[in-house]
Amino acid sequence: MFDSIKNIRTLHTKIHAIERIDNTFNIAHSEIKVNTHPRKLYFINPAKKLEVLYNAEVSKKAVVKPHVFPYLTVHLDPLGNLMRKSQHYTIHELGFEFIAKTIALTLRNEKEIPEHFTYHGKVQKNGYTCHLLQFEDDSYSYRKYTVGDKETATSIAYKLCVNEYLLRHKNNLLNEFTYLKKGKVIGVPTLYCKKAVIYVDEKQMVPVSISLFDDEGLFESYTFSSITVNKPFPKDEFLLDNKAYGF
Fold it and tell me: Does residue 247 lie within any of the structural domains?
């Protein structure tokens, strides 16, 4: 699976996402087109009437078009507050590369792999024949961490190889993206998650579904359908003047 994801140059897929924000779940049905290198991305959520276009060759900012009043097209920083508010991840994490990284981080933090990973054989999931894998470790907990100079929740999660949403959730930092106060003591997860359920398509060897759990239960789940990899995009696919888009 890691090799397959590493070799993906283009991806077109639909995503059903469930993300826990505090005590509620946000559900979204979206479609994405991704060119991995250089990074180019088109995202649309028809229900929320939202389109996003990002082209690293053109700008470091994303073009965002909400098809509701006042219908303004804006250029926003993908890492800024407006685009990250009430979201688990940024548009930079859309696609399979981040999922591979997530699994790799789980493996890195887990010393007794055979004990906590289980292979459940082949099953049907979302129209695909998949390998079903499950990770579960009841030792999942939180430890104290003292914030250093110029550290953010994002940088701490990256440094410690833990899930950023869980770190934010534990410390009431869901929409705090600036530097944290030096010397502040926060709680950080000891593992990337307590439990993970992963379905991998046996043919394309890419994730069809991944669900992650903490000590409170499910906190995020992503299911993919209509998966197409390495099909070349037209030259104007990630340009503003593409007539198929609504910018």
Answer: no
Domain count across the chain: 2
Condensed to tens digits (0 to 9), the pLDDT of residues 118-149 reads 999 999 999 999 999 999 999 999 999 999 99
Half-sphere exposure of 213 (CA within 13 A, CB side): 14
Give the type of residue at 41: L
Q: Which of 93, 96, 74 is nearest to 3 (CA)?
A: 96
Residue 74 structure tokens: 């804006």
> Would you state the structure tokens that stand for residue 111, as one six-digit string?
């010393």
Q: Could you tell me what percentage of the chain is helix, strand and coil, using 3-state DSSP and rounding each to the nearest 5?
A: 20, 40, 40
Domain hosting residue 148, numbered range:
142-189
| CATH number of the structural domain spanning residue 92 | 2.50.20.10
pLDDT digits (tens, 9 = 90+) for 11-42: 999 999 999 998 899 999 999 999 999 999 99
Q: According to DSSP H, which parts of 110-223 are helical?
A: 113-116, 153-160, 164-170
Judged by DSSP in three states, 103 sits in helix
- 3-state DSSP call for residue 4? helix
pTM (global) more than 0.85? yes
